[in-house]
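$ fold --in a.seq
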Amino acid sequence: MKRYIHESAEVHSKLVGENTQIWQFTVILEGAEIGNDCNINSHCFIENKVKIGNRVTVKCGNYLWDGIYIEDDVFIGPNVTFTNDKYPRSKQEFQVYSTRILKGATIGAASTILGGVQIGQYAMIGAGSLVTKNIPPFTLWYGNPAVQKGYVTISGEILDHNLTSKDGKKYSYSNDQILPL
């Protein structure tokens, strides 16, 4: 399958990968890079200095500003708010704070991600959370501000703070990996 771009989308970038789908009323600026097998839902805006890896899902209503880097296999729920300026003022120059979402991470709907943070591999951010600091790999965070509530496996299984699943299976956390015992 070749890429699909809905007729109402405005895609100025030539750097859109194969099998990527871009839906209604989405605007993608010229410098944006989007990988293969991505799904960019309707009503999204992607600025020039944004890089999106392969197999990424960006749900409806997301605006990705300059300085946002998204690795492979990331899921971004609907209406997530990203920032890239820590001290905004109207019509003034500002420093772009780079935000990195690492491989396999999930960000729940309506979360807010402050500029300059990194969300670790396979981390999970619960819906409606406010992320103000770096999130370690394989951890589960939610709340306002978000706090760590447990761990999560590559497959998305939720573990408590003792690295135990709901069915009592034990895991270990070392070298930024979750491994069954």
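$ fold --in b.seq
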Amino acid sequence: MIPWQFQNARRVTAGGWLAALAFGLATAQAAAADLAITVANVANAQGKVLVAVCTPETFLGPNCPYTAAEPARPGSVTVVVHKVPPGTYAVQAFHDENQNLELDRNFLGLPKEGIGFSNDAPMHFGPPRYTDATLAVAEPITRTMLTLRYLIER
């Protein structure tokens, strides 16, 4: 048999752990920002505008950890990516006109759909460098803008 004091101590300890866990989860949820990205120069209302918030390891690839999409419309579209932990990231976007979730390319490898990067990072004979596209994400919301570029004449 366990004496009453120790039994209560276990309850308090278990309760304390539960409280700490709940506090930790609340803190983890609170330590996330919304990133609102205004994507300019959308050519038409076909398909969707997809954005990806990337780490240095995932930049220019298909596995960026935070993504979102909105229906395309001519001009500007704002896409909000929720629950991005504060930090430094680069944003890549494209206008998925045919909604196949892939950046379509021509026989030379040039994108057939509009593409863009945070800071309107320059593309000199290829994609931009991560360091040219970085931005700081902070709570509760960070806003940025980028411009789509259509590299093949429409």
